[in-house]
Amino acid sequence: MDETAKRHLLIAAGCGLALGLLLRLAALPTLSALALALGTAIVLGALVVEIARSIARRDFALDVVAALAMAGALALGEWLAGAVVALMFAGGQVLEARASARARREMTALLARQPRTAMRQREGGLEEVPIAAIRPGDRLLIRKGEVLPVDGALEGPALLDEAALTGEPLPIARQAGDPARSGATNAGESLVLLATRPAAESTYAAILRLVEGAAAAKPPLARLAERWSVAFLAATLALAGAAWLLTGDPARALAVLVVATPCPLLLAVPVALVAGMNRAARAGVLVKSGAALERLAGVSVLVLDKTGTLTEGRPRLVAIQPAPGITEDELLRLAAALDQASGHVLAEALVAAARAAGHALPMPEAVREAAGAGLSGVVAGQAIAIGTRGFVATHASLPEAPAHEPGTAAVTVAIAGRHAGTLLFRDSLRPDAPAMIAAARRAGIGRVVLLSGDAEAPARAVGRQVGADAVFADHDPARKLAVIESERRSGRVLMVGDGVNDAPALAMADVGIAMAARGQAASGEAADAVVLVDRLDRVATALFAARRAQAIAKQSVAAGITLSILGMIAAALGYLTPVQGALIQEGIDVAVVLNALRALGPGRDETA
């Protein structure tokens, strides 16, 4: 039942109750009863249809208590009680819809920004086309204030607002030829974008797919709550039946049904979890599902990639150490030429350094890449291998590894089966990395592990800086999986990485979070959540949000069910009339929903 239908039911129930009370005051009891019964019957009919649809979907219909209460009120002639129950039920449905909408606001805002059409340039002028019709090579006119519909390259300077993608509050100046990601807003004058990807493969589309799937799967806690609700229903029916049999008064059974409600279970859990997802989204972390949020709340081991995760991910070439018989320029040129075929951050830094030095880079041939380890191929007729010492050692004999300054990453190069030299890179630690580790420990992380494909020395240097409990260096993706499996002995594992090389580890961990702020949102497909802003500290924010949402959900359930049970006992003993029970039931519903919405805000420990 959609929100519009729920509002119509609320209007029908409210009108029936109001008209019935007015007619009662006017001393027209028959018409009053008819108005009250009609309002109740409309809501009951809609509820029976919804219960039938739920059963057809093989979902247990937990609103059966409300249906029995309304039907019982009509059968016993308790017209006012039936109308109050109908109004309270319809009001609870609208309250749930509004609470869920508020809890989901940040995520649905992303969907609302999605452009539907674009202005495509043709020889005959401009034509407005659906974004699904855009193909690579199309020239698009993006007017001021419009959202870029696809990934592309700018044909001129532009001012882009990338807040929806990166969290950066100020517009960024871009130059002609710069890549521009879908989802950014044109904050300057009209620009021309040369499409490089179809809309379905663009950055923003990948983010939207994550958003749309975020509510699809029920989290384990919600499924558990539904199972508890079945037991609650059985207990309710047993207590109502006992009250009737022992007293001979069916009104007591009706009062029990009216005050009984599984709403603390049905409303509090999903609202709290969605609120937690929204809290994370507001901080720039998109959690794909409530189930992922629940798992995140239970992690105790944090495993972190180094390059691009703990570090800035923008390494610089700081030293070239050629082997005897080869010049620095030759080593740089040949190594960079081969690395043109790789998307690794060190490869990008090497290519940028070679081009800055004025080298013309020939195209590599017969390239083979071992993810996270290195590349081999042919450049200008010479066999080249570049990567970790372990990888290059399979292509050439290597001398003893020289000592390097801690904090530098060493890349080994072989040419024509012989050791050709070493390239040294330095990547700065993210300023927020130590604070994030400290916050994660406050959030309940008991063990921090640094897991890197880099050499031992730079990995250990970074590990010391952030206070890691263990450091695993020179690990390819396969060995990273073994570490994840081993760390599971210490508790549930959260893996944080930044790209394709980390995808297997992200998928194997209990929870995987991908750092996707630099255009790698699609690579976050293997992860349970993606960080859309270039801030590592937002991982700790997501941890706090998950733990707080789960704690509030459990708290709301416990308090709500306890109050419902006390009300049911009071009703069975004759202390509550059906009308009073309906009012108490609605008060419980409102209280648990408002409490669940507290998950939208930060907790005290988050800022400790």
Give structural notes.
- 50% of the residues lie in helices and 17% in strands.
- The protein starts with a helix and ends in a 12-residue tail after the last helix.
- α1 packs antiparallel against α2, α1 (3-25) packs antiparallel against α4 and α2 (29-56) runs antiparallel to α3 (64-76).
- The protein folds into four domains: 3-104 and 215-274 and 546-607, no CATH class; 116-202, Calcium-transporting ATPase, cytoplasmic transduction domain A, CATH 2.70.150.10; 285-305 and 445-456 and 463-534, HAD superfamily/HAD-like (Rossmann fold, 3-Layer(aba) Sandwich), CATH 3.40.50; 316-426, Calcium-transporting ATPase, cytoplasmic domain N (3-Layer(aba) Sandwich).
- The protein is elongated.
- The strands form four sheets. It has a seven-stranded mixed sheet with strand order 10-22-21-20-11-18-19, sandwiched between helices.
- Mean pLDDT is 83; it is low at 214-219.
- A hairpin with a 3-residue loop joins β13 and β14.
- It is built from 21 helices and 22 strands.
